[in-house]
Amino acid sequence: MGEFRGVFKRGSLGLIVLSLLLASSLSWAESASKHKQFTTDFDLESCTFSVTGGNAYFSLDPAAGPMNPILLEGVEDKELVQVEIVVTNDTMPIDLGALGLGVVVTRVVEETEWIDGELVEESTNFFARCEETDSVYYFGEEVTIYEDGEIITGAEAGAWIAGELAEDGESINMPGLIMPGTFLLGARYFQEVAPEVALDQADHVEMGLTVETPAGIFNDSVRIQETTPLEPSSKDIKIYAPGAGLIVDAVIERVNEFSEVEP
Hints:
With 263 residues, the protein is mainly beta. It contains 2 helices and 16 strands. The protein has a 16-stranded antiparallel sheet that branches. The protein is globular and about 50 Å long. The N and C termini lie far apart (40 Å).
């Protein structure tokens, strides 16, 4: 697998267009965050993007290793929840022309969730690494939810793509930051920037943790609290370990292999 790179380029007209779009796109952020400011400006035009590499806590390399695949498992409401995250060999170009930017080739990461052995959700996520900072950015996802015999897709399932018109019909979906190259305590930023669909935001709340999971003991781990203005009462805690990636997501923890589901 080769490496794909794309440098954003824009002229003065692009800057004018981008300024107008940002003014519209950020209005929701100003009202949503109120007392807590979460970063939405990531200086993406200064990045050379790659679909390989990563940082201590997030990898885009498809080769098998400690970060690929990632298996998580736990019990919630007496139901066995299992999640598999796989960095695939596939890539996807994302057109950010509507933001006055270019096309970014992203890495495809598949996430699958089962409850008591039954498939409940599949998502195809698009990420790319900024070579200058090793920060990994999020460019959208396609989602399929299986619920009570129905199949839910599109915005209703939480799908969004950066550079496309947002569901509010006024702003443009923008890339978010999934994991910075340097973990700074107290940092706050938007992971997803899709008004009315996905506005997840991250807050770095703790570092230097030692965490034990069924997959082993992980040192120097970091804790991130995720919230969203779309559901103000909702909070999720994720813990990442250097060289291992995600090891805790709410009630599910890292495992070396899934438990067998009893019929």
